[in-house]
Amino acid sequence: MDDLFLRLANPQGESWRIAESDILREWSKSGSATMDLLLQRGEDALDEGDAPAAVGHLTALTDHAPDFATGFYTRAAAYATLGQFGPALQDLARALQLEPRHFPALTQMGVMLEEMGDADRALAAYRESLAIHPHQQEAIDGVARLERQQQGTDI
Fold it and tell me: N or C end of the chain, less CB within 10 A?
């Protein structure tokens, strides 16, 4: 994984796209077919707009696979969809405790903190995410937006 993260952080060329895909694929594997099925059901429920069902599937996943960062990251997305930012932030913190380089969790944290009006912590989360994966447009846009706000040039 370290080699993938080195390629991900490389600002030159396009090899970062393959590295990103490989990292996300590796993170999606729990090591258990049953847990992978729960993740898939949770993701499918989210895609179908059924966040409560997603939370149910993903809670079963996190209960049975407490060391699987992607379970917590995905459940955080479901909680955020429901407007439950407290539980979502707790799940993101757990995902980052398990996998400190989980750049999607850092970016999602930045988005939620920004929505909650905590610009300083949101900016820090976006910057930390970009230090790992400098090509994330959502984090790039978040940093630019918050820096404009801090400078008083945001309209």
Answer: C
